[in-house]
Amino acid sequence: MQKTLNRILAHEDINFLVTNRIPRIAATHFVGWLSHIQSPRLASLLIWIWRGFSELDLTESKQQHFRSLNECFTRELVDGSRPFCDDPGTVASPSDGIVGAFGHIDDGTLIQAKGFPYTLRDLTQSPHLASDFQSGYFVTLRLTSSMYHRFHAPADLSVSKVTYISGDTWNVNPIALKRVERLFCKNERAIIEATLSQSLQRIAIIPVAAVLVASIRLHFVNVLLHLRYKGANPIHSKASLSRGEEMGWFEHGSTIILLFPKGYRLLSSLGTGSKVKAGQAILEAFEVLP
Question: What is the pLDDT of residues 204-231, one digit of tens each?
Fold first, then answer.
């Protein structure tokens, strides 16, 4: 079953139609409602169907039996499954994921996919953030539906503000990224502004939701961020997190965009398409500016 479905969805036109040319927001609300139904039997059935579309592996999960599909989506892992690199000269991956676009931010412009640029100002809707990172560095991490969906602090840091931006729910897979211009600027997202404790440099961590995924939970914000959230916005914070401390989770797979100042780069052992795990070193600081 899985091989047949994967073969069908591997066709770009079919994949794009199936995952995008549907009532995206209505489908997202429906899946959100369905996934929260408390019924172990229904959860088992939905997980069985889910396995048909993905390479879902629950061997590292603390739970093996779930009362709802959402419990499986947001599962915790057994202790020690994601050790965090403690080299202070590196930045760890906040989540499991696949490295997408990365590189230097050229005068406020980032790359979504080849030939598809977008701007910091559109992404953050903030002139001061666009200015802060206009010559910085970015990395995009894509979480597939079967991956571990919780994300963690990539280094010791303090969160100062979270800005929630409601939006659409386009799929964020490579097929959509090659077809929908400025996709990340259209989708629901949260802009997490933080300061690295060691260097006092400002960074931004941007979870971006997608089709069937429009809920983001942050431990240090006492609300569930989703398409029906109306405010307050922005949300100020004084949360301090240690490297590896859990920040929150998606209620399905999606994307995290990391923004760093000038002086950082992706480790040479990684590149587009590299699979990484939460805690794995992905960035190194090679130049600390005064």
Answer: 999 998 766 557 889 998 777 766 676 6
Task: State the sign of the Cα–Cα–Cα–Cα dihedral 60, 173, 208, 45.
Answer: negative
| Distance separating alpha carbons of residues 59 and 63, to the nearest angstrom | 9
Convert 88-116 to b/e letters by CB count within 10 Å (16 or more is b).
eebbbbbbbbbbbbbeebeebebbbbeeb
Distance between CA atoms of 68 and 241, rounded to whole angstroms?
A: 29
- The helix (H) or strand (E) run that includes residue 51 is helix 40-53
Q: What is the pLDDT of residues 132-185, one digit of tens each?
A: 999 999 999 999 888 999 999 999 999 999 998 887 777 777 777 888 889 889
- What strand order describes the sheet that includes 224-226? 150-152, 246-250, 215-218, 224-226
- Return the active site residues: 96, 152, 254
97 and 68 share a domain? Answer: no
Specify the amino acid at residue 147: M
Quote the tokens at residue 285.
């600081």
Q: Are residues 106 and 161 in the same domain?
A: yes
Q: What is the DSSP letter of 263?
A: T
Beta bridge partners of 164: 190
- Check whether residue 188 and residue 65 sit in a common domain: no
Let me know if residue 238 belongs to a domain.
yes
Alpha-carbon distance 225 to 212, whole Å? 14
Residues 41 and 148 in one domain: no
The single residue listed with the structure tokens 């409602």 is 33
> What is the number of structural domains in the chain?
2
Same domain, 139 and 246: yes
Mark whether 59 and 103 lie in a shared domain.
no
Residue that finishes a domain, picked among 13, 43, 73: 73
Whether residue 81 lies inside any domain: the answer is no
Q: Give this prediction's pTM.
A: 0.87
Residue span of the structural domain in which 20 resides? 2-73
